[in-house]
Design brief:
The protein is of the alpha+beta class and about 120 residues long. The chain has three helices and four strands; from the N terminus they run αβββαβα. α2 packs across α3. It starts with 13 loop residues before the first helix and ends with a helix. It catalyses: Endonucleolytic cleavage of RNA, removing 5'-extranucleotides from tRNA precursor.
Length: about 120
Amino acid sequence: MKFTFRKKDKLKSQKLIERLFLEGKSVSAYPLRLVYLQTNHEDNSVIKAGVSVSKRNFKSAVDRNRIKRLLRETYRLQKHQYFNNITTSYALMILYIGKEEISFEEIGLKMNQLFKKFIDANPKS
C-alpha cells in the first residue's frame, strides 16, 4: 500500500455513510473516534475512509478544514502500517470529537492508538 489517499479510497457514498452510522461499531482514542463497518465495495478497494469535524465544536470553517486536512494527512501516512495485509473490506469514518485544536504530532499519536484499537477489535481481518 502506498502513501496515497486516492479518490477510490475516499468514502463518498451517502447510502454507505448512513449505513455506517446506523450499523457500524466504533473505537475511541480521545479526541478521535473511528466508526467502522465491514462491507463489500463495488470497486474492490479494501478500505474506504472519510473524516469529519463537528460544526458544533468548531464554528469557523477555516478551523474545521484545517483539522480535516491534518486528519487526512495523518491517515495517509499511517494507513500502510495497519491496513497493508488486511483482507476484509471496511468503510471507516474518522471523527474529531474534541473541542480544542490539536497539533499534527498529537493527532499522529492518537491516530496510532485508534488504529491499534481497531486492529485489536478485529483480529480476523
